[in-house]
Hints:
Layout: H1 4-15, E1 21-28, E2 35-44, E3 47-54, E4 62-66, E5 70-75, E6 86-92, E7 95-101, H2 106-119, H3 128-147
Antiparallel strand pairs: 1-2, 2-3, 4-5, 5-6, 6-7
Helix pairs in contact: 1-3
Amino acid sequence: MDIGCYCISLSRFLFGEEPRRILGIVDTDPVMGIDRLTSGVLEFHRGTSTFTCSTQLAPYQRVNVFGTEGRVEIEIPFNAPPDRPCKLWHQRGQSITEISIEVCDQYTLQCDLFAKAVIDDGPVPTQLEDAVANMLAVEAVFLIARHGTWIDPADTRTPETEE
Length: 163
């Protein structure tokens, strides 16, 4: 429920809708009782998002967005380092453009925008309804991981497929 919420939020943002179906696998740390490795599949009307995230494995983050004419890859999308720029690659056909993203503190930017909304009595950058919808999707990943069922490929074999 830590960094995985960003994977789900980004997926919902990119597709501009809520997922129709969700699958999830969660490995929980037996000592700390927190999710240490989570994978999910979110099915939308126009496509599918998959993610794997962990708070206890090698520090590595990438977002890859694949389209019919190209792709975008984002380096360290969710908690950018404070001491160096991150990169984004945009590929269309055989052409790849590398874009450097300036050093910033994403959490400070979030707090500054929220404070401005409060001071100016204006809209907050992310509406409460979005946070609730994101949490519903996060909860669905954990629910299906706890209560979902898997099908053993051996259970699907028939005499015709065993040959």
